[in-house]
Design a protein that fits this description.
Helices cover 38% and strands 12% of the residues. The protein is an alpha/beta fold. Bound molecules: iron/sulfur cluster (SF4).
Length: 360
């Protein structure tokens, strides 16, 4: 039995079906290629030295063509190898644009314009990509596990209660990793995982690196790509991810800007993150995570769940109850405790009434 067939057989027999994420489920069954396979095998006529506006116009046209051509829905034949990468592909064009976006960094909506290629750190503190850890995760949503999580150091938000603050607040920790080594990490775990799960900290400051890994990774059974993020990226960054990511595992924390500003030190949160959830749902599949914060059910949980229902539809939302005070939470009276059972149930039952849970 080929490695791809063996992998498909193991997962289809062992795990319950994933009805609400049909395209992701098809990738697991090798009935569809991950999107990046198409982005790197699609030739695009572009001059890497052209001005940025011209390159974006070519990029947007190529993505539109990819989406309307039907290529993304093509079913691989029995035992078929994935399409070969080409030189001058849509993915190559995305990498040129990603490097430009990082040069005066505008990967996230802080748009701090740090000259990261010259060694300057931005507001998030990230200069070059550092990988904090890479391992098989068995404790996340059932659709994902086992999930090959690649944790980046550093984050563009500063959540006062961050449970990963040893990673997110230490952007210069972890190992320097080349794209080739990133691909090697994927190869080492590929037979045991359902996906590659880019996380952190946050993957947003590392999008150019991720695209470069996707250019060189060479798996017999290409993996679904999961972007596990706070979703505070720019529209440009989201456009670069379009055609490379299969699933957004998207955090939606706050229902208003005041809570976001005080507890994550970030402006204009709701407009940015709601816009990005909507755009992400149009380019890939979406699984939302919402962490119930103590004292924030009425101001955050309910508005977030309502917004998702009204603007995207019933979604698989993981309403999470594992909040505990961490990092600087003790400096904020409202979040210096665990949520009560009543608070969690109010959020969970509201999600259930909206149809956000029980989709499986
Ligand atoms: S990702 Fe970091 S360096 Fe880039 S704009 Fe955001 S805060 Fe600045």
């Amino acid at each position: 039995m080929s490695p791809a067939a063996l992998h498909s057989s193991v997962f289809s027999r062992t795990w319950k079906p994933i009805i609400h994420l049909p395209r992701y489920a098809q990738i697991l069954e090798v009935e569809r290629w991950p999107q990046y396979i198409h982005a790197r095998s699609m030739p695009v006529d572009f001059d890497p030295a052209a001005d940025t506006g011209t390159l974006w116009a070519v990029h947007d046209g190529a993505v539109e063509l990819l989406r309307t051509s039907g290529a993304l829905d093509a079913r691989p034949g029995e035992g078929a190898a994935p399409p070969e990468p080409v030189q001058g592909s849509l993915l190559d064009l995305k990498i040129v644009l990603a490097d430009r976006l990082e040069a005066e960094c505008q990967l996230c909506e802080r748009r701090c314009k740090a000259a990261r290629a010259e060694g300057k750190a931005g507001t998030c503190g990230v200069v070059e990509t550092r990988v904090s850890s890479s391992f098989m995760h068995h404790g996340e949503e059932y659709e994902l596990v086992p999930s090959h999580t690649i944790f980046f150091s550093g984050c563009n938000l500063e959540c006062q209660f961050c449970q990963n603050h040893d990673i997110s607040r230490r952007p210069l920790s972890g190992a320097r990793v080349t794209p080739e080594l990133g691909a090697q990490l994927i190869h080492e775990e590929e037979m045991g995982s359902r996906n590659v799960n880019w996380v952190g900290g946050d993957p947003i400051p590392n999008v150019p690196f991720i695209l470069k890994v996707l250019r060189v990774v060479d798996s017999p059974r290409p993996h679904a790509q999961v972007f596990n993020s706070n979703m505070y990226m720019t529209e440009e960054t989201l456009k670069l991810l379009d055609g490379t990511m299969d699933l957004y595992l998207a955090d939606f924390k706050y229902g208003n800007d005041e809570c976001a500003e005080r507890l994550s030190r970030v402006e204009n949160y709701f407009a940015v993150v709601s816009r990005n959830h909507k755009l992400a749902s149009e380019q890939a599949e979406l699984l939302v995570r919402h962490l119930v914060l103590p004292g924030h059910v009425d101001c955050c949980s309910i508005p977030v769940l309502d917004w998702l229902r009204e603007n995207i539809g019933p979604l698989r939302v993981n309403v999470m109850d594992q909040y505990r005070p961490a990092y600087r939470a003790r400096e904020h009276e409202d979040i210096n405790r665990r949520p009560t059972t009543a608070e969690f149930l109010k959020a969970y039952n509201h999600a259930a009434a909206l149809g956000h849970v029980g989709l499986d």
